[in-house]
Amino acid sequence: MNNGASRTISHTFAARAPSVLLASKSKVVRTSGNSFITQQRSSFSQWVAPTVTYSELKPLTRQPSVDRYVIDVREPDEVAAGAIPSSVSLPLSALPGAFHLPPDKFRNTYGFEKPTKNQELIFYCRSGKRSTTASEYAKEYGYSNIKNYVGSWQDWSEREGKKAE
What we know:
With 165 residues, this protein is an alpha/beta fold. The protein folds into 2 domains: 7-45, no CATH class; 54-160, Rhodanese-like domain (Oxidized Rhodanese, domain 1, 3-Layer(aba) Sandwich), CATH 3.40.250. Strand 4, helix 2 (76-79) and strand 5 (88-89) form a beta-alpha-beta unit. It has helices at residues 54-62, 76-79, 95-98, 103-110, 129-140, 152-160, and strands at residues 7-17, 20-32, 35-45, 68-72, 88-89, 120-124, 146-148. The chain is built from 6 helices and 7 strands. The longest helix is centred in the last third of the chain and has 12 residues, at 129-140. It has a 4-stranded parallel sheet with strand order 5-4-6-7, with helices on one face. It has a 3-stranded antiparallel sheet with strand order 1-2-3, with no helix packed on it. InterPro entries: Rhodanese-like_dom, Rhodanese-like_dom_sf. Pfam families: Rhodanese (PF00581).
């Protein structure tokens, strides 16, 4: 069924490593009969969220601020086992849709004000993997003051003498 026209098939591949975004595009062009030409176009964009350590985060939890949110992206059953003081809960599973909500609906759904684009957001989870993903989501949605507590709940609970689950 070749009428002499070229057919183009595009394939996009995206891979995520911790705090690094990689993207590559391949384009396969059918020229005639069974001849194919593959054109590779790669783009590499790297963004790494700044990190926060326990010693940097600890004083911030004693002085909550309207200019900052410490956001726990674990699921509610995990949060029930313990959380960092003054943190708010926004599960990673809800994060993509949450950023699209109008401010009043966000507040009614999650119990705190929707962050502004300039507000400091410090993400944490159980071990640092989901908080890395949350940081990337926030960046994609236009937030600019993002940090990741890579030690997350495991580090916090160990230092505070609590059991991490």
